[in-house]
Structure formats: C-alpha cells, structure tokens
Amino acid sequence: MNSDAASALTAASKRLAAISETPRLDAELLLAHALGISREDVLLGRHTGPVPTAFDALVARRAAGEPIAYITGTRAFWTIELMVAPGVLIPRPDTETLIDAAVAHFRGRPPRRVLDLGTGSGALLLAALDEWPAATGLGIDRSRDALAIAGANAERLGLAARAAFRLGDWADGVSERFDLVLCNPPYVEADAALPRDVAEHEPHSALFAGRDGLDDYRRLAPGFARLLQPGGIAAIELGAGQFSRVAPLFDGQGLTISMAQDLAGRERCLLLAAGLE
Ligand code: GLN
C-alpha cells in the first residue's frame, strides 16, 4: 500500500472510531469503493496514484452515521454479494445462521423449492439458490421497493431464471408447499434502543414488530404447516431470547420445533420440521 493510502486509512479510522465498532474495516471498504477496486486489492497495495478526493466525502457520510452498506451500495452475505439501498434491511451475519441450519438439515438431499417470506434484498432466497444449484424459489415482500432490489440482485447474480418474486403479505394466498421456508421477520420491541445508524437509516417496517416484538410471529404461525412438504423445514429468525415465547405459537401443527444458535451463542433461529408422513 502506498504511504498516502496508509495515512488516509489511519486518519479515517480514527475519525470513524466514535460511530463504528469496525472503524478500520469501514475505512478500507470506503477507500476500496472510492478507488473502484476490492478491499483485498487495497490491502495488497494493488493501486497506484493519490487517494481520490471522493474518499473524504464517503468518510464524512459514515461519520454522520450512515451505514456502510448504504454508502457502498453492497453487502456480502453467505456466498453472494447483494446490492442494498435504504428501502431494504442490510443483511446481517446473524441471519446466515438460517442458511447454516438449512445446509445441515439438507445434507445429501438438496431442497428443490424454497420460499422466502419478507425477502427484502433477496438475501436468504438468493443465498439458498446459490447454495443449491438445482433449486428454484419464490420471494415475497409487501414492499415494492424491496422487490425491485431483490429482482435486480437475482439478475446480477445470474439467479433470475430460478427466482420469482411476488408482492404479498407474509404467506397469505400461498397454496404451494416448499421443501425449505426461510424468513427473517421484524422482531424488535417497539421501545427497544437500537444503535443510532440502524434506527435512523434502516426501514422500521423490517425491524419493529409491536410492543413485545412478536406481532409478526403471531401473523405467521396460524396454518404455517401447510407451507411445508413432508420432510421439509422452515428456518425463521429470532431475536435473542425469544425462542421460549415464539415456539408455542407454532404448537399443535405436527411440526417438530427446535432452535439454532448464532456464532455468538444467542438463540437466533426457530426450526420447524415437517414429518415424512
Ligand atoms: N437483528 C436486527 C437488529 O438487531 C433486527 C433484524 C430483524 O428485526 N429481523 O438490528
């Protein structure tokens, strides 16, 4: 790395330390974005010339609280890179827990049909289609903006032929059965204090779910088993500590209910398995 770039990164990460938990990483991603190259290429010094003047403006936006993924317009998730914009929740590493759990379940017999409820950027559906090359899937969202972004992501990733998207409210009107149902619903309590960059920039409709954060699980649960093929599973994201309150909502449908933890050991994924009949 040339000394200009090195000192620009040091200065930027100092400036970002007040807002970000990952100031150095943020600075590297913003410099890569300003240079139009990958972060790896920045770190390996594969660029010449001065630091672009645009870098300063990008750092200023981040310093004012804008999430890094909305500034660069992209976010890595599982094996894919997604375009993101303020109309969709930024995919989180925690959400990869759902794909991880599905991979463990379907080892050796890949799912053929995948449903993603509240698809947002398309992250879960497209990660699943990338994981299982013979699978096809449907992503549903009630936001037209989100569907436009999800569709563009499917195109960009070369997955459009296997991904369909539909405007809708959760699984209302869905009569098909799926091998795998994925869902990252809103689950934040109404009065929870979210980090400032999340609260001020990400869509509240994708975050908050009523006073106790459980409103959308209550909407999803009735008749949920009708969506699953025999031997199929659903992986539904949970807020940390919500398992014991969410699991009973899905009782009485013949589903086997379990939980998967995220990498930090928090309850993160409700697993619902349909028997083989
Ligand atoms: N895990 C997210 C957060 O803490 C919330 C995502 C969601 O509600 N599905 O910001």
From TrEMBL:
Binding site for S-adenosyl-L-methionine: G118, T119, G120, S121, G122, D141, W170, N184
The reaction(s) this protein catalyses: L-glutaminyl-[peptide chain release factor] + S-adenosyl-L-methionine = N(5)-methyl-L-glutaminyl-[peptide chain release factor] + S-adenosyl-L-homocysteine + H(+)
EC number: 2.1.1.297
Annotated GO MF terms: nucleic acid binding; peptide chain release factor N(5)-glutamine methyltransferase activity
Methyltransferase domain boundaries: 113-237
Keywords of this entry: Methyltransferase, S-adenosyl-L-methionine, Transferase
Keyword Hydrolase in record: no
Family: Belongs to the protein N5-glutamine methyltransferase family. PrmC subfamily.
Function in brief: Methylates the class 1 translation termination release factors RF1/PrfA and RF2/PrfB on the glutamine residue of the universally conserved GGQ motif.
PANTHER family noted in UniProt: HEMK METHYLTRANSFERASE (PTHR18895), MTRF1L RELEASE FACTOR GLUTAMINE METHYLTRANSFERASE (PTHR18895:SF74)
Name by which UniProt lists this protein: Release factor glutamine methyltransferase
Chain's gene name: prmC
